[in-house]
Design the sequence.
């Protein structure tokens, strides 16, 4: 519970600074600090079991079928990182209070910061790897928001986008890697994954999984060649850099290296990939840092270099090297955070970050200068500071490996070279900024010390650097021991944290680095000139070009497929479905199944032939639309007959009545549309469509034949068996509609009503050209409403209504029901419109079709809800037999009420469509039909 | 019988698909109607072709499969709603764009 709360607190706390924003920056910062402070207290309460070497687990099921659980884990490693995240987070909150100006939205800043903090805590405290990945991606997203905090600046937006693209892309690779590991280990829970390290390393997919996971780690931790996003992320406000790029975001990568160390490390693959990447990054970062004139740029490349160092240590694959790596994570976080903060102070007070302009600051801000110099010395690895200790351990470990055979000396040599550069750029940070003459052309002159409390976070961190550097055994040793043993997943090797180990090779390397660094710095001017002569490679430009290239390719691809031609889309879709079905039918050994074929009688054979023929005639005459329409109605009628023939009376009735409504609708539409279709398809397109249609027809015919000649199992026996005892009706089709599958039907009548409304909206305000004569130039008949039709239709109306009532009532037991009765009523009413005109009918039939459709859905829905009152699930039906005088025994089912809803919806929707379309044909714009 | 039915359905589908690929709205709507006939018959046929045994309890010894029938019944009604919607969309297109070409503009 406590673990979940530690993660949840920052997320919950997001709201506080937003609320407190109006009360000023101090209140805002205080509000932001509440959640991390509480989190820190909770974390400290868990101290005892963690330092006893226990693993605190808490587990909640989420999607156990997929292996996703809300399971959390706190061990030494997680404790160390949570401490860094919360502790440095609090210092950054204090620092940002003074860094942000009054006009900047502090509430939003702190909200983003807390969001990021919560995500980071989630990463380090997750037991489930998929859960961890979710938080991992959340750190990418929230860091995007933080880096682009000054979103009016283009470099901030571009830098943020680059960081998101690189780390987010790496996250995808990581997801794939984790899924593989989960498959191999049989679980996504860390405890099990860490325990099955041997199985993972022995698996044939291990190299692939390792590479994918390392891609995620290297992009996040800015390892070469993915390091380029980090310097551009320096466009963020400095508190963000101090937080993200010292202790948290970039450390998430090395955290995962440590976390998965027992599961993945210990193979040749691991060694070559991790150590060589680390060594390259170490050298590239250290070298590049020297040539940066931007204060934060120097720190950014130095961060890359130190991350490379940590990665190299993990790659060296001795247990002691892993301890050194964990130690350096702690040390780097403290000195780098304080250096970023100091750089921010200098930027804040001078208005510049260019080291060629910022000189001689010692005179203007001695206090800050002292703090920065101590921190920079720690970065250089000067004795009595924490950086020295881990660097000594690092040098020792580079000497203790023999991984490259006769070339093993390359690693310590590279490490020493990086040490030389490291001393040189640290020296530059100290000498160039605080001494080296007078400031040049500063925006803010003269600079002065920052507000008192802005220096407090720096002081705290620098104090820690000194404390750890002087008395390591009494300060950092227990934390390091517990974190390192959690990393290794076993007992710790022997090591000593003392400052003096006697005269040995690592000390010599340190001395070489120190002297070499001073020499390099002294002769920096020729080096700078040489560097200026190199071809400049702007990562931002390259990245933007790559992005533009991808966008252009995507656009080209889109335009190829989506050129605005419906015909092409349809052809492509049909082709695709053709291919899919063909592939699916492929494995069939024979087309004909074992089932014997039924006999063909003459009438059926003739009707089938007519059906096919009229479909073909529809196509042949499709340019003469009226003829085609007539043939289409023949097809519809024959389909109804086919339903009759094959034991589906309900379908036949429905098909017949729908056919009529559809034909009226199409006739109405044809009044406005051109009477003929121009012959405009090219021969080639005609051929293409012919082949597609032929192919599709053939495939469907084969499919139907293959299915019909094979036996099948139906689930309908249940419905047939339970129709009378369970549903109280003998017409199984109707009982299925209103009872067994009532929920489906409810959805379907809702769709019907929505379609009616949609059509009503589409017709609103539509003005169409109304031809005065038909295609051959004949004027329309002057007799608008023929007398015989008008008279007959009025006579027919009560009769038709009676029939629809009959069909409705018998529906539960015999073919009929709400759908069919509704359609019959609709047809009877439409006939009145056709025979007598819209106005005449409207004035006599005061029905609101919107309401009718709505009431229908409501009746059906409420009938379903009513079963709740009696304690049954939604849409449970009941029925009973009643004796009514004169009529006799009658059976009533609550499903009938549901069917009434169906009936009303069908009438409402159908007439809503037709009456409104018919209204358009009125010469004078009649009033809307509701 | 099965072979005849399959062939008829094939022709019905082919006719529908061919009309669906035309360039004007009205033939497309007609194609859609033909195709929905074919699809309805196809779904219906998945319950196999039975003669003289409607799914009304007590009327015959065996019954045709009522489940595809129930599905197809609603499909017919929904198919009507869809046809009406597409048709009105075509009319709206004609009113707004002054053409009944499916791409909303006369071919150049």
Sequence:
């Amino acid at each position: 519970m406590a673990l979940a709360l530690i993660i949840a607190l920052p997320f919950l706390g997001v709201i506080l600074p937003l609320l407190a924003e109006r009360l000023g920056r101090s209140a805002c910062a205080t509000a932001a600090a509440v959640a991390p402070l509480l989190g820190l207290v909770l974390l400290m309460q868990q101290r005892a079991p963690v330092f006893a070497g226990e693993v605190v687990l808490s587990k909640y099921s989420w999607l156990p079928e997929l292996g996703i659980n809300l399971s959390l884990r706190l061990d030494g490693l997680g404790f160390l990182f949570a401490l860094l995240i919360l502790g440095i987070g609090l210092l950054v909150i204090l620092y940002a209070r003074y860094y942000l100006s009054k006009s900047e939205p502090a509430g939003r800043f702190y909200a983003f910061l807390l969001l990021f903090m919560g995500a980071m805590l989630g990463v380090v405290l997750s037991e489930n790897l998929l859960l961890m990945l979710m938080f991992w991606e959340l750190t990418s997203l929230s860091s995007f928001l933080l880096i682009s905090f000054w979103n009016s600046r283009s470099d901030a937006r571009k830098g943020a986008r680059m960081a998101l693209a690189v780390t987010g892309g790496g996250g995808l690779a990581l997801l794939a890697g984790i899924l593989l590991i989960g498959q191999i280990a049989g679980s996504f829970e860390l405890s099990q994954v860490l325990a099955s390290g041997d199985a993972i390393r022995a698996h044939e997919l291990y190299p692939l999984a390792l590479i994918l996971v390392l891609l995620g780690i290297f992009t996040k931790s800015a390892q070469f060649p993915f390091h380029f996003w980090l310097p551009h992320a320096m466009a963020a406000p400095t508190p963000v850099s101090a937080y993200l790029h010292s202790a948290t975001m970039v450390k998430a990568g090395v955290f995962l290296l440590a976390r998965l160390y027992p599961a993945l490390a210990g193979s040749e693959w691991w060694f070559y990939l991790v150590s060589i990447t680390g060594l390259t990054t170490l050298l590239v970062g250290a070298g590049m840092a020297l040539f940066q004139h931007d204060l934060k740029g120097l720190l950014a490349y130095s961060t890359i270099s130190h991350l490379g160092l940590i990665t190299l240590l993990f790659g060296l694959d001795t247990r002691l090297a892993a301890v050194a790596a964990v130690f350096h994570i702690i040390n780097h976080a403290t000195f780098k955070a304080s250096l970023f903060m100091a750089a921010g102070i200098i930027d804040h007070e001078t208005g510049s970050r260019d080291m060629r302009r910022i000189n001689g600051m010692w005179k203007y801000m001695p206090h800050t200068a002292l703090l920065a110099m101590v921190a920079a010395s720690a970065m250089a690895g000067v004795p009595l500071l924490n950086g020295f200790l881990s660097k000594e351990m690092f040098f020792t470990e580079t000497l203790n490996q023999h991984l490259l055979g006769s070339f093993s000396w390359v690693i310590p040599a590279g490490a020493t070279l990086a040490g030389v550069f490291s001393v040189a750029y640290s020296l530059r940070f100290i000498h160039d900024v605080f001494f080296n003459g007078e400031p040049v052309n500063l925006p803010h002159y003269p600079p002065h010390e920052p507000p008192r409390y802005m220096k407090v976070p720096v002081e705290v961190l620098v104090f820690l650097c000194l404390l750890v550097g002087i008395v390591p055994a009494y300060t950092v040793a227990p934390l390091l021991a517990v974190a390192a043993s959690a990393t290794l997943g076993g007992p710790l090797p022997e090591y000593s944290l003392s400052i003096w180990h006697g005269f040995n090779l690592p000390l010599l390397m340190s001395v070489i680095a120190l002297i070499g660094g001073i020499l390099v710095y002294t002769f920096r001017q020729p080096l700078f000139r040489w560097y200026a002569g190199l071809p400049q490679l702007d990562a931002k430009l390259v990245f933007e070009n790559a992005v533009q290239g991808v966008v252009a390719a995507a656009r080209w691809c889109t335009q190829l497929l989506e050129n605005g031609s419906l015909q092409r889309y349809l052809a492509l879709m049909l082709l695709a479905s053709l291919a899919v079905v063909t592939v699916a039918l492929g494995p069939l050994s024979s087309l004909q199944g074992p089932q014997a074929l039924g006999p063909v009688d003459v009438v059926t054979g003739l009707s089938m032939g007519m059906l096919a023929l009229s479909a073909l005639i529809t196509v042949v005459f499709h340019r003469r639309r009226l003829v085609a329409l007539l043939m289409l109605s023949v097809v519809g009628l024959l389909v109804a007959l086919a339903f009759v023939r094959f034991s589906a009376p309900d379908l036949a009735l429905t098909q017949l009545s729908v056919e009529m409504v559809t034909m009226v609708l199409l006739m109405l539409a044809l009044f406005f549309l051109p009477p003929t279709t121009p012959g405009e398809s090219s021969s080639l397109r005609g051929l293409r469509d012919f082949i597609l249609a032929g192919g599709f027809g053939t495939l469907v015919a084969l499919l139907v034949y293959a299915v019909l000649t094979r036996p099948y199992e139906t689930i309908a026996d249940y419905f047939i068996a339970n129709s009378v005892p369970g549903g109280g009706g003998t017409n199984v089709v109707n009982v299925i509609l209103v009872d067994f599958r009532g929920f489906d039907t409810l959805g379907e009548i809702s769709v019907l009503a929505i379609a009616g409304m949609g059509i009503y909206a589409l017709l609103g305000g539509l003005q169409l050209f109304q031809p005065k004569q038909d295609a051959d130039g004949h004027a329309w008949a002057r007799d608008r409403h023929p007398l015989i039709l008008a008279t007959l239709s009025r006579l027919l109306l009560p009769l038709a209504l009676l029939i629809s009532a009959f069909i409705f009532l018998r529906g539960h037991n015999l073919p009929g029901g709400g759908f069919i009765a509704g359609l019959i009523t609709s047809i009877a009413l439409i006939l009145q419109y056709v025979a007598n005109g819209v106005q005449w009918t409207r004035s006599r039939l005061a029905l609101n079709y919107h309401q009718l459709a709505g009431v229908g859905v409501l009746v059906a829905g409420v009938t379903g809800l009513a079963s709740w009152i009696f304690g049954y699930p939604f849409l449970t039906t009941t029925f009973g037999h009643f004796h009514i005088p004169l009529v006799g025994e009658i059976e009533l089912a609550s499903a009938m009420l549901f069917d009434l809803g169906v009936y009303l919806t069908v009438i409402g929707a159908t007439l809503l469509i037709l009456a409104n379309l018919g209204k358009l044909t009125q010469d004078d714009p009649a009033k809307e039909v509701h | 019988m099965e072979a005849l039915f399959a062939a008829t359905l094939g022709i019905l589908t082919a006719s529908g698909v061919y009309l669906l690929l035309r360039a004007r709205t009205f033939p497309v709507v007609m194609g859609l109607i033909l195709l929905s006939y074919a699809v309805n018959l196809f779904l219906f046929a998945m319950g196999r072709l039975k003669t003289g045994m409607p799914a009304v309890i007590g009327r015959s010894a065996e019954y045709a499969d009522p489940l595809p029938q129930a599905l197809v019944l609603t499909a017919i009604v929904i198919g009507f709603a869809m046809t009406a919607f597409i048709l009105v969309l075509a009319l709206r297109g004609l009113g707004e764009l002054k053409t009944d070409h499916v791409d909303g503009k006369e071919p150049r």
